[in-house]
Amino acid sequence: MIMEDRRQPPERDPDAILADLNETGRGKLTIFLGASAGVGKTYTMLETAHERLRQGVDVVIGWVETHGRPETEALVQGLPAIPPKHLTYKGRTFREMDLEAILARRPELVLVDELAHTNVPGSRHAKRYLDVEELLAAGIDVYTTLNIQHVESLNDVVAKITGVSVRETVPDRLLETAHQVQLIDIPPEELLQRLREGKVYLPEVAERAARQFFRPGNLHALRELALRYTAQKVDSQVEAYMRSHAIDGPWPAGERVMVCISPSPFSAQLIRVARRMAAGMKAPWLAVYVERPDASWEDEEARERVSRHLRLAEELGAETVVLTGDRVAEELIRLAKRRNVTQIVIGKPLHSPLRDWIRGSVVDRVIRGSDGIRVHVIPGRPGQLQEGGEPRKGRAKRRALPRSQAPYWAAVGIVAALTALLEAVAPLLGQVNVAFLYLFPVLFSAVRWSVGPSVAAAVAGLLAFDFFFVPPAYSFTITDLRYGLTFAVFLAVAVLTGRLADRLRKQVEAARRRETQTAALYALSRQMAAVIDLDEIAHSIATQVAESVEGEVALFLPDDTGKLAVKAASGDFSWVADSGESAVAEWVYHYGEPAGRGTQTLQEARALYWPLRLERQTLGVLAVRPKGDSGESSFFSRDRRELLNAFAGLSAAAVARVRLEEQAKVARLAAESERLRTALLDSITHELRTPLASMIGSVTSLLEGDQIFTPKDRRELLITIYQSARRMNRLVTDLLDMARIESGMMRLNKKWCDLEDVIGVALARLEEVLEGREVRLDRPSEIPLVWADDVLLEQALANLLSNAAKFSPAGSPICITVILHTGAVEVSVVNRGPGIPPADLERVFEKFYRAPGAEQVSGTGLGLAIAKGIIEAHGGRIWAENVPEGMRFAFTLPVDEPPSKETREKEGVTGCRVERGSS
Q1: DSSP codes of every residue in 131-194
Q2: Residue 33 bridge partners (DSSP)
Q3: pTM, whole model, 2 decimals?
Q4: Which of left, alpha, beta for 335 (phi over 0: left; psi -120 to 50: alpha)?
Q5: Which backbone phi and psi does 247 adopt, to 5 degrees?
Q6: Cα–Cα–Cα angle for 447, 452, 457, rounded to 5 degrees
Q7: Angle 707-711-714 (CA atoms, 0-180°, nearest 5)?
Q8: Which has fewest Cβ within 10 Å: 233, 637, 700, 765?
Q9: How many Å apart are CA 131 and CA 117, to the nearest integer?
């Protein structure tokens, strides 16, 4: 037996409690994780709960499933519990955790067993982990249990191991954000023994489970998954601790491999070596490329090789990281320490040692800065093949060919032109100034072209200075050895300034390129944030992406039937209609991987197709192709792919946001419809049952007691029948009036009406309701006529008077006031009833709304809604407000120029008054 906690919670709205508690902080989640059922998760959770209860913590059981295990049921004893609620679904009654009662009870700690459970339809949330998230948001600590096969990211792995596809899963973020994950582990042999002894399931269920799921191989594999997942959780906590305490890594708490890649074809071998090493250690691994600002951006071949290496690493399961920095070794070491890397894989360079002596060796710097990190230097073979199968010898021969000789000849030409100019003015400037002026071609060539033309300009300037301006003139002969030192210094300064200028130029180009990409992403995000229509968002995505990548773009989204179709496109998109292109888009949408032109999949397609993915779900496909004769290698470069990937992420988020808003709107409408339906049924049931019961009772008395009742008694019974019939008639009339107002079928039969007459007729209609009350009328001496439907206007006023009588003390006065304004007349009804909370003053005119404390007053909640519909149909306004006397309901009607006497007689104003009085 579960001991119920019978302390009555205060009557508060759970949503209000949640809003209050969100201000005080979030609760802590503890997950008792096991490899499978029967390892003792629930048992350990209950033991820990008893310990917390002895410490004075307010602990309650929200839901515990004992599965008939005696030892578990024994631990339930002594723990307060929230009784489950009962829900009916398809004719059957189910027991579920009562989330609302727990929120109202507000314990410090609640036990919620079976985190991955799916709730019965009709519950507040579809999944139990959503219930837990709401409890945490309310500041309540939660203990819960979970089996490793229910973790979302391991779902496919578990299916491959066990052959069982688990449908009830929990998002990884719940475990990643948990305060504590406690592993409950027992050897598989002991678990199988418990299963045979009936300690896990009942005997008939245990026998079937042993044949299907509880096989030794399955249990060993699931146990390894649980141990590994928990170790990853601990490792992430270690990283967080190191960052928060500014502690340099690594800590020997777990293995992590990092491979350093470059444009060299040898990097593909390094990636595979790192993959085998990480797989052998069962460790995560990273592939890192450091991009230098002074890298040669004109070498598209090298950039494409880097892109292929990064894609290969991603395909093999690595996390890819691209850094930017001048000092490659320092950037690698800094990242390794920040990510707690324990193993670095780097390639041994194939160039000559002289180059390392001049420029420094990245490998040597990494080894010197490793500081406890093991570095694996993998040597390459000079004759090995690159990815495409071409020998390195042929590749080196191609690289030796000059790209374009024009910048070099231009640099030499600038030096020649400067020399001709200096020949004329050299006597005025002197040798020192002439030498400094020869630095100008060097700087200009570095900024305009690259470091190669700048070096050519430095050498040409040195030779020109020696030939024309160093004695003996017009000869390369040097008679003074001091000029040799001058020439060496000049050449060193020229080359150094040229390299610095070249590096600055490339840094500016990189900054400009990144600024362009950032501006494009910002523009797209700003446009999508301001739009909630899917068609407009799709058009913005296609337009912005096309402008940014300078190509043609098409956006594929699933239609209402789930079939992929073009939602928006830019430029000439006739190519999209090709059946082959649509097939590629369908493949990308189905598998969630890029394909088409520039990839290794379906390369014959005309465009590159990129999936719009968000949280492992593909929402659409973005197709991009170059305009005209754009080169494929440059158009599908790594930078453009990264930009396209960023665009795809933003687009997926925007599409998901719109769809969620549409789903939320549908859910709100469904909830509102359900609320109104329930309110209508409750109200009609109550209002019909009461008069029907009175009528049946009176008729039964008359039929059975004809000789008992006096004529006076018989009259009272007949009056009761009459009044009950009138009450039912008012109910049906209110429902019909409300239906006419909402359907737009209410037609106004307007004529010139006297408000004083309308008030008098409304009072006459409510003579019985207002009996025993003083009705005060405060009006000006002259009230203008209004152009209105007098019948509907009387009904609106009667509803206000009836409401005032219902919600005020018996015998208290009611005041009717008429006030004239410019172009309008105001009529108000004031009673001595209780006030209404300011937040509900607008809601009193909603259908079926009942003010707090109005449960004991009969009525359907339609009277004020009907009055509002009638007044607004006349172009007026109606409102409610609290006044010192009580409550004031008022409305205004527009007043036009009064008609002439002849018009009034023609419209029948006076006749109308007489007719109303007689009725």
Answers
A1: HHHHHHHTT-EEEEEEEGGGBGGGHHHHHHHHS------B-HHHHHT-SEEEEE---HHHHHHH
A2: 146, 183
A3: 0.38
A4: alpha
A5: -100, 125
A6: 75
A7: 80
A8: 700
A9: 10
| 29-244 is a CATH 3.30.1360.120 domain | no
Specify whether the CB–CB gap between 626 and 635 falls below 8 A.
yes
- Which tokens belong to 504? 């600055």
Q: How confident is the model over 27-70, as pLDDT tens digits? A: 999 999 988 877 888 888 999 999 999 999 999 999 998 877 78
Tell the residue number behind the tokens 């314990």, with chain if given. Answer: 107
More confident residue, 102 or 662: 102
For the domain covering 532-659, report its CATH number: 3.30.450.40
Give the list of residues 6+ apart from residue 349 with CB closer than 8 angstroms, or none: 355, 356, 361, 362, 363
Token duo for residue 621: 């496909």
The CATH H-level superfamily of 746-918 is: Histidine kinase-like ATPase, C-terminal domain (3.30.565.10)
Torsion of CA 220, 222, 228, 229, to 10 degrees: -170
Q: Which residues pair with 385 in a beta bridge?
A: 391
Whose CA is closest to 775, among 753, 802, 755?
802
Pairing of strands 824-831, 814-821: antiparallel
Reply yes or no on whether the pLDDT at 120 is more than 80.
yes
The reply to whether CATH 3.10.20.740 applies to domain 257-350+358-386 is no
The domain limits of the chain are 29-244, 257-350+358-386, 406-508, 532-659, 746-918
- Each residue's pLDDT tens digit, 486-497: 777 777 776 777
Same fold flag, 257-350+358-386 and 746-918:
no
